[in-house]
Amino acid sequence: MLKKGFPILIILAVLFYSSCKRELAIPSWEAEVVAPLISSSLKIGDLLTDSLIEKNSNGSFVIVYQQDLFSLTIDSMLEMQDSATKYTARLDSLDLGIISVTNSLSIGEMANNLSSEEQAIIQLLTIFSLPTDQTFEGVSTSDTIDFTTYFETVTLSKGIFVLEIDNDLPFNLTNIEIEVRNISDGEVIGSTSIPSIDAGESHSEELILDGKTIEGVVEVALVNLDLILPAGSKIDTSDAITFTASQKDFIIESATAIFPEQSVINLANEQLLKLDGLYLNSVSVKSGEFLINVVNTLEDTLYLNYQIPLSTNGSKAFSAYIAVPPKTTVDSLVFPLDGYSLDLTGLNGDKENVMYHYLEGTIKYTGKVITLSKSDSVEVYYALKNIVPEYATGYVWDDIITFGSNTIDLDIFDKLASSPINALQFDSIDFNIELSNEIGIVLQAGISNITATNSFTGASFSTSVSAVTLLAPEDILPITPVIEKIEFPNDDAKGIIEILPNKIDYTIEVFINPQSIVPWPNPQNSGTDFIHFGSEVGAKMNLEVPLGLVANGLILTDTLGFELDDDASLAETEGITLKLITYNGFPISSNFQFYFLDDNNSVIDSLFTEKGYLESGSVDAITNKVSSSTRSEFLIDLSDTKVENLKLTKNMLIIADFTTEPTATPLKIYEEYGLEFVLTGEFILNVDDL
Asked: pLDDT of 274-288, one tens digit each?
């Protein structure tokens, strides 16, 4: 603390004598002025970082330090890679529905193609019975079958027309030759020969239509037909032959048709998810999305339905339903998966990391004629993306995670770090690595290397500690972590701390499901490992050092502000003497020195030619506590050089080395312990010169 009394006294003296009459003689004498320069005290917080010091109930102190070493959360343990599927559907299985068209050809209609004589006979037979057998040979006629309620044209790569003929006439038909033709150009698309069809009987023929184009209206031509009328026959011109045409096994190249509702995509799939080292039977999604892209080249609206049947969110399974208009591309349509639980045991519940899903694409009946062909396609890309699990169950394959080459910068002993090796000897040290497991996996963790270093002195100390096992906690929210400590033996702890380290390097190895504890093979889809979002495996370093110590050359440094208000006033002094009074309440004796620092904090001089010495406080032999502070007084006559350097001084640096008294017994440091000092200056002024 800088006292300002001395400059004020000078000013008052000058003002007083300048007010006197000029003709009077000015008396001459010397005046002694005492001015305080620094007053301060050092407590335990000046030795160590006070934020790390805790006070016991008896008033003694303990250094308590804690440092996180690592943490392993679900984000790094359970990384679900994006899973994508690309599927292209062609219209190979395009369906026209059930096609069945019936038409009939009566005797009256057939007679139109007979000769006039034959027509006269037919007319007579409508009235009279035939006296003898009569055969009408080479009868030819035709009829049409209309498919336009189904299609206008259809081109087949393969297919069969089933032609069924019902003979409802009262006589037999023989030598039947039939051709099926397209109306527009008369192209024969199928033909057949039938030896005979008895009266009242039916006959079915399959016409192969591979590679054929069929029009909506076709002609069924009876190229030849022999009618055999037995004696006694009587004709009803309304009697007829009935034709029924239907399709079989159509594989369509293209069609202009009215399509019925049908599925063009029907894809059920078990998808293996990419989960390295993880064998999961379920996962609950905290956040994530289902993304789908669709390219629809059809002339019809495509209705897509994606489902994950073995998923739940409340009472519903995940599904995404979209309608894609004709000739349209849909990009990056997103559906949230948040809150869904996914079963990853496959359709039959006997797998791991397998998600069963289903994609269906349909076109619906509209009653409109559209054209579809084999060249038309539907391309679908869909993916699960950015999945962040909330909870997962299963089994985690044994693995090793190494947290190595890590460094902790310690500031506990910053003010003591330049002390020599073994300058401090602590009574006892509690030093451990505390491990915490909130993840439902058995772990082992060990310190394969820990090295403490004092970079000021070059001292170092290395050791290692055996692994400990952390069992899995109970799967009950909130998770109660399993905690284990790796304790350092007291000798190792003292070896690390007593070099007053400012750096600690360490390597920690974490063994996940080590086979020595949880043997493989994995219990198929019945693993009991679990992970909750936000749960972690962590390690922290705990250090507790009771301030019961032996000091031998412990070095303390501290810097105090110092600046004279008006260094010009020192020019009128004939002598300066500094007085330093100290009260040492620590049980530690000290050799010390004050250094003058300029505005760059460079040393320009020292207070003492040789270091000063402070006796420790008086220690009670029974209580081992300081019973009274020891007062010391130092008078320092400043040389002219030191006076000039004092003018330039901006800060005072104190360097002290301490030794406990007595040295054999570790002494505790208490709250009331401290070192007080007052630095004053005695200035002799020559008033005659004013």
From this structure: 887 788 899 999 999
